[in-house]
Amino acid sequence: MRRILLPIALLLVLIATAYAQRDSQPPAPVASACPGQQMPIQQATGTYTPKPVPDIVINGQPAPGAFWKAGERAYWHCHTGGQILMLDEGTGMVQKRGQRARVLHRGDTEWAGPGVEHWHGATADVSAQYFQTAVTGSVTLWMEEVGKDDYQGNDIGINSRNEFIKSGVRKKSNP
Asked: What is the pLDDT of residues 39-64, one digit of tens each?
């Protein structure tokens, strides 16, 4: 009996110690590897148009949103606190760095966590209205324009990022 109780007691002590150590440590800060910079205006291919979303009401007011005409999109960017997007009208596109672009339809959502490089906008032939908001206190850091290969779903954003890091050039000659 003693042979069974001793290992069980040691296991319980180990588990209790692990939980105590975990709970006594503050959460690690989120470090952003995002190479972007703050800019005075929204960076976009086309025109960024802030437009509240009347279908979503927060504290008695229409929710924050943006309207993108067909073919328009934000540059690659990240938010230090993260951003949530939900498509309200039209057909949208989103892409996170390292993944293929995907199409959004009404009600589809996207969460870009803190420091996650991404872009969003409309498809080539249909406009898009988004509900979009960043976490309070979040800062937007802008990078390069979304190139044709990323926008058409043929790349995962790595080639354009490497080009941006190397050259520092934001605007593409052939977006």
From this structure: 888 799 998 899 999 988 999 999 99
Closest to 128 in 3D by CA, of 144, 101, 107 = 107
Residue 99 Cα distances to 9, 25, 95, 141, angstroms = 47, 33, 7, 19
Query: Which pLDDT belongs to residue 9?
Result: 41
User: Under CATH, which number does the domain 44-167 receive?
Assistant: 2.60.120.10
Strands 61-63 and 53-58: antiparallel
Domain ranges of the chain: 44-167
DSSP assignment letter at 37: B
Over residues 124-132, mean pLDDT: 96
What is the rounded CA–CA span in Å between residue 39 and residue 27? 30
Write out the H or E segment, with its range, that includes residue 74.
Answer: strand 73-74
What global pTM score does this model have?
Answer: 0.77
